Amino acid sequence: MNGATTAHNGTVLNYSTTGSARLTLNAVWLYNFFMTLKAQAEYPAFATLDIRVGRIVDVQDADTKKPTYRLTVDFGPEVGIKRSCGAYRNYSKEFLLGKQVIGIVNFAVKKMGPERSEALILGVPTPQGETIFLMPQADVDLGVEVF
Question: How does DSSP assign 109-147, residue by residue?
Answer without folding.
Answer: PEEETTEEE-SEE-EEE-TTS-EEE---SS---TTPBP-
